[in-house]
């Protein structure tokens, strides 16, 4: 069997794996090993493909801010098409959630985002389908963007190849061992060797760590369901924003001429080819019919996808504390596509032993606060922390 050698082996060909491989390919030779026959088959190909700086926990939302310039103005030659297009996001608060929404608005302003805090009745000009009388306050974020995930993945793949890197599909890593200072990964496509391994296996990161002989870490997948249905007859939905409720019990957005809705379910799952859950499909329809004027007589399409989280929902990026040549790029949760560009730059700098890029450090991100060695990740029995919001983490 052939043995191929590189400086870095990246396990997983989703957004995390391809983006970090692209960034590492300026530092050395890189081979990405992906189980499936095409990259992005799992979570990356199933997302809502939206970028909002008001979505997710504190550190992830800062990585989203740090990803914006890459998505809006990628490097020359990265893509022939725009990676992003305007979408807008509308956040709706119930009576008792108004202070929380105002605090989110203040944090967004601190980070330079423009927002419009308004009444739900006024928010009808952004999305005429909401039942305004059910809500007490609205926040509109005009700079929320739709991401062209295919173009983003194609750009990373093309850029990786142009820099001499390689993506090997149908190459599930079946064995992974470190001997004589070198990692050896066995796949059906042959053997691969490198001094450094990057674990970007999404829902399978625990499995890959186990293959490497490392102790269990708390980074586990949860299933999320999504559904599309036809919009109301005659409605021009193209400019409707991604609409969320503050308690995160649903979101919906226009998607290729239809409406996509998720009941934002979060069910622990084994790593797998996730499917839609029928009960969650029914809940999604109920939320649409309860909080909007839309009706859902038939469903066009439904799917499931995995979102992988550390207990604090923050990034798990950097060297494993027991094995510094094993680099984690994990715990992307619901921010992996939108925050992937900055997460990849951060991961590549930590993998190469460099200091964190200045723009990312300036946002308060340190090697310690994203480290796989922090206690909630490295001690499986540690008390589950409260999930941080924007204002919670310095
Ligand atoms: C319904 C839904 C909506 C979402 N909406 C958004 C959104 O609007 N914006 C956003 O930013 N994020 C969103 N997300 C989250 C986003 O999809 C994830 O954060 C992101 O795709 C994770 O990327 P990944 O590369 O870590 O995982 P994946 O895309 O799952 O990639 C991991 C890869 O590793 C491979 N792999 C696993 N084990 C091995 C092995 N042993 N050997 C080789 N390869 C292996 C797998 O085959 C897989 O391709 C959403 C997710 C869902 C489910």
Question: What would you say this structure looks like, in words?
Answer:
The chain has helices spanning 15-24, 58-72, 98-110, 149-162, 205-211, 278-291, 340-351, 358-361, 375-378, and strands at 3-5, 8-11, 30-33, 50-51, 84-86, 89-93, 116-118, 137-141, 145-147, 166-168, 175-179, 182-187, 190-194, 196-199, 220-229, 242-245, 251-255, 258-262, 267-268, 301-309, 316-320, 323-330. Strands 6, 7, 8, 15, 16, 17, 18, 19 and 20 form a nine-stranded mixed sheet that branches. A six-stranded mixed sheet has the order 10-3-2-14-22-21, with helices on both faces. The chain has 394 residues and is α/β, with parallel strands linked by helices. Helix 1 (15-24) packs parallel to helix 4 (149-162), helix 1 packs across helix 7 and helix 2 (58-72) packs across helix 7 (340-351). The protein contains nine helices and 22 strands. It has two domains: 3-47 and 149-219 and 312-378, FAD/NAD(P)-binding domain (3-Layer(bba) Sandwich); 89-142 and 220-309, 2-Layer Sandwich (D-Amino Acid Oxidase, Chain A, domain 2). The protein binds flavin-adenine dinucleotide (FAD). Residues 11-17, 33-36, 40-44, 46-50, 172-173, 200-204, 208, 224, 226, 262, 305, 307, 332-338 line the site of flavin-adenine dinucleotide (FAD).
